[in-house]
Amino acid sequence: MKHNVLDRGFVPQKFHPRGTQFEPATENVRHYIERIVIDEDPRNNLESTERHDESEAYTIEISEDGGALIKIATLLGGLDALETFAQLFFAHSSPSAGSYTPYAPLSIKDSPVFEHRGLNLDISRNWISPTDVMRTIEAMAANKLNRLHIHASDAQSWPLEIPSLPDLAMKGAYSHAQIWRTEDLEAVQLHGTYYGVQVFTEIDLPGHTTSIGNAYPYLVTAKDVPWPEYALEPPSGQLRLNSSEVPPFIQTLLDDLLSRTSRHSSLFHLGGDELNMNSYRLDPTVNSSSYQVLQPLVQAFIDHVISIATAHFLTVIMWEEMVLDWNLTLPKDVIIQTWRSSDDDALGTILNEGYKTVFGSNDHWYLDCGHGYFVDPEPSNPDSPVRPPYLDYCSPYKNWRHMYAYDPVADVPQSQRHLVVGGEVHLWGELTDSVNLDGMLWPRVAAAAEVMWSALGKKPDESTTRRLADMRERLVMRGIRAGVVQMEWCLRHKGGCRL
């Protein structure tokens, strides 16, 4: 960790009734932790019979006289252990008294339920700077999240610099000031590595690619036409499926990008969601919206993308539609990401096909839901769906308790649990930018993080509230403008806000 493990504490006065003595008196006898011994050995006996990922397992022992021993099997486990260790301490209200823990002596043995515990962050619809993402990585590490999925391109803008295709960002970004340079992406991935968060990119293909057409219009169909028939949101436009010019473009694009990102990540997300069939009636290389015509073309396109990613030794992730809607035949090492609540058994269907999967239903873990439509009513359309109370498609708002109560594998048989790699919570960017990013993420992401680490099948109670409120204060100390978990009176009066 880049910082002293004890420099992030806070004075927990809002967790105690006014006027009570909640911290040790400064004149009390003190036992100091003079040093922390970290024993890293792959042979450390950290096994857990219930949890299948041991690479992040750790134990912490703090004795009454101040001895501190941390045992880990890997460096990643060490990062998790130090986060937990730091969160055992509070700052004293007397600055000269330093930090203290009320929990010693203690013994902790811990490891995660899931290997992949992630956040999907959209940086393409509104400007999210590299600095914002680095700050988010630090908050993720505090919550033991270890995967940052950067949704790096979409129909609206192309913010990533691709040196071999310079016009992509120069013409596809909202402005020249809203471009992630190659050094920015490198810095974000390195920052993730320092904090135990693997940062990987998604280039959404072959749909959601209108922004490519700003630089290379001959590669895209259904661009600059009225959008509602050809896309779920503006602007419409998708890569042509049968053009001889698209495959070499994809080869150049991905060879450039993946040769750089693969230095820091073993993953690549190729997208594959929400492909609009109507668009291909306007594609001169296809001239059809027939599933029978399009399906083999989609198969060939995805096969090509997978072959490029595989050549860079990357594991491919894609959205569920490629299996559930397009019935593609894919290598079994591909990870399928589920998201649609409309398909009640998406996870089960994909597992029955033998694919690994990542969960994150829009009914539970979509952070953008409940903020209302981002489009305006069309005055000439009396049947416009944009009408009072102006709810978006995935309303209501997903509050932290709803997110915590999500149990994605409740109906997954034990024989298939090993195929569930983990989950991701999602923040799509239609109504999020650098200004409101922190409040859109936190503290709700912290609730999802606990589910992915250890809380499957649990319902939120007062202990959950107080734990999350503690984390919120620690995030605020790190400069994160996290939302409030609970009214301060309730925190000060334990048991006083139950119903």
Question: What are the SSEs and their pairings?
Answer:
Elements lengths: L35 E5 L17 E5 L5 E5 L2 H12 L3 E2 L7 E2 L5 E5 L5 E7 L7 H13 L4 E5 L15 H6 L9 H13 L3 E8 L14 E2 L16 E2 L6 H16 L5 E5 L19 H21 L3 E5 L1 H4 L10 E3 L8 H7 L3 E4 L40 H5 L15 E8 L9 H5 L2 H10 L8 H16 L10 H5 L7
Parallel strand pairs: 1-3, 7-8, 7-16, 8-9, 9-12, 12-13, 13-14, 14-15, 15-16
Antiparallel strand pairs: 2-3, 2-6, 4-5, 10-11
Helix pairs in contact: 2-4, 5-6
- Give the % helix: 25-40%
Unreliable residue stretches: 48-52
What is the spatial order of strands in the main beta sheet?
7-8-9-12-13-14-15-16
Sheet of most strands? 8 strands, parallel, barrel
Q: How would the global form be characterised?
A: globular
- SSE order, one letter for each helix or strand: EEEHEEEEHEHHEEEHEHEHEHEHEHHHH
How does this structure look, described?
- The protein is an alpha/beta fold and 499 residues long.
- Helices cover 27% and strands 15% of the residues.
- It contains 13 helices and 16 strands.
- Strands 7-8-9-12-13-14-15-16 form an eight-stranded parallel beta barrel, surrounded by four helices. A four-stranded mixed beta sheet has the order 1-3-2-6, covered by helices on one side. A two-stranded antiparallel sheet has the order 4-5.
- Helix 9 links the parallel strand 15 and strand 16.
- The protein is globular, with a radius of gyration of 24 Å.
Q: Briefly, what is this?
A:
This protein is an alpha/beta fold. The chain is built from 13 helices and 16 strands.
